[in-house]
Specification:
Number of strands: 9
Strand content: 15-25%
CATH superfamily: Vaccinia Virus protein VP39
Shape: globular
CATH architecture: 3-Layer(aba) Sandwich
CATH class: Alpha Beta
Order of helices and strands: EEHEHEHEHEHEHEE
Mean pLDDT: 92
Number of helices: 6
Structural class: alpha/beta
Helix content: 25-40%
Number of domains: 1
Low-confidence stretches: 1-7
CATH topology: Rossmann fold
Bound molecules: S-adenosylmethionine
């Protein structure tokens, strides 16, 4: 697919060893995320992950749920190499990473059917069009009984954590099109695409997991 990605791909310093990237935030949060995803992903799900980054979350969930098959993806080649290296080194049953950019063409044309669409820490470090295209992809390709799972920080009106407001300002100073997304806007976006919020899980460091399923009226 065409490249539209601009560096940096993350707002943190990462280390690298034999192809594997290490994300400080992923190493802090992956256990808690794997616990929740391990619970909410459908049995034997074919999972498509958008913006898999280092691949650490993907391998943690695959280790927690050996029944699922995981397709990692990222437009960034260094991230894809890291995902492959992690999968190889821990023996996780992951497909070779796919070059997928939600700002380049219709991703629905490029992907195999999936039972779960997972996207973590991406929609705030990308233009809003990425969230819109994520919802469109889910509407076109999520199979019956499937789920959409998002993870990240959100703005929640007066209840927004001060750390998320600071993060929002930091993102916008890098790129005015980026920013911590409004929780209600994300729920409305997926609602308009035919998905209802099943569950909102509070996570460490003021992050949330959002779990959507096709709404009955879809
Ligand atoms: C902050 S990292 C998060 C990585 C990983 N999901 C995690 O939680 O550790 C954001 C990721 O989104 C990817 N990304 C950025 N723009 C994208 C786009 N237009 N389509 C798909 N992925 C994108 C980046 O390459 C990067 O790997």
């Amino acid at each position: 697919m065409n490249k539209t990605l601009e560096a940096p791909v993350a707002m943190e310093d990462r280390t690298r060893e034999e192809g594997r990237l290490y994300s400080p935030s992923a190493s802090r949060n992956r256990g808690a995320i794997a616990d929740v995803l391990g619970r909410v992903l459908p049995a034997n799900a074919r999972v498509l992950e958008i913006g898999s980054g280092t691949g650490e979350h993907a391998v943690a969930v695959c280790q927690a749920r050996p029944d699922i098959s995981w397709q990692p993806s990222d437009p960034d080649p260094v991230s894809r190499a890291s995902q492959a290296a992690w999968a190889r080194d821990v023996g996780a049953a992951m497909a070779p990473p796919q070059d997928l950019d939600l700002l380049a063409g219709d991703a629905a044309d490029a992907v195999a059917p999936f039972d779960a669409l997972v996207c973590m820490n991406v929609i705030h470090i990308a233009p809003w069009a990425v969230a819109e295209n994520l919802a469109k992809l889910a509407a076109k390709r999520l199979q019956p009984g499937g789920r959409v799972v998002l993870y990240g920080p959100y703005k929640e009106g007066a209840a927004t954590a001060p750390s998320n407001l600071e993060f929002d300002a930091s993102l916008k100073s890098r790129n005015p099109a980026w920013g911590v997304r409004d929780l209600d806007s994300v729920i409305a976006l997926f609602g308009a695409a035919g998905f209802a919020l099943d569950e909102r899980v509070d996570m460490p460091a003021n992050n949330r997991v959002l779990v959507f399923s096709p709404s009955e009226t879809r």
